[in-house]
Write a structure and sequence with these properties.
Structural class: alpha+beta
Order of helices and strands: EEEHEEHEHE
Number of strands: 7
CATH architecture: Alpha-Beta Complex
Strand content: 35-45%
Number of domains: 1
Shape: globular
Distance between the termini: 18 Å
CATH class: Alpha Beta
Radius of gyration: 14 Å
Length: 146
């Protein structure tokens, strides 16, 4: 059983997502990934966001937890703030960068309009619906289990 930390990052009415093409299955998901052994979700969040985007998380608040199918059985989803930045790119020394070069498992961080988020092919519908609702009414003050 593996756990993952994921980031909801919103700037200027755009949300940062990971566009995936996993062996022909095209979808979007939140930026983030697997916790390492003895790593807290908050630590994994900071590391994964840096690896997958080059961004530095300056604040993260747990807003959702989600039970999920393999390989990540339990996901911690944080609403994040990031430091000022330039372009968003996968960092060279990461698994994602290697997979982009040698396989059909492609990762690309992209900014999408918040208004179009509900219509995207998103990996988990429950999480997508929760985020769409939160974009209208605000994110929960306490973590919600999806």
């Amino acid at each position: 059983m593996a756990n993952a930390a994921r980031a909801i990052i919103i700037e200027n009415n755009k949300m940062l997502l990971m566009h995936r093409n996993k062996n022909g299955n095209v979808y979007f998901t939140l930026v983030g990934g697997q916790l390492r052994q003895d790593e807290a979700p908050e630590q994994a969040l900071v590391r994964e966001v840096k690896e997958e985007t080059g961004l530095t998380v300056t604040a993260g608040r747990l807003v959702y937890t989600e039970e999920h199918a393999e390989p990540y059985n339990h996901q911690y989803i944080f609403l994040c703030e990031v430091a000022s930045h330039g372009d968003v790119v996968i960092q060279d020394a990461t698994d994602e960068a290697l997979l982009n070069k040698i396989s059909t498992n492609y990762h690309q961080p992209v900014w999408v309009d918040v208004a179009s988020f509900s219509g995207l092919p998103f990996l988990t519908m429950r999480l997508q619906q929760a985020i769409v609702e939160a974009l209208k009414k605000g994110f929960p003050a306490e973590p919600v289990k999806l």
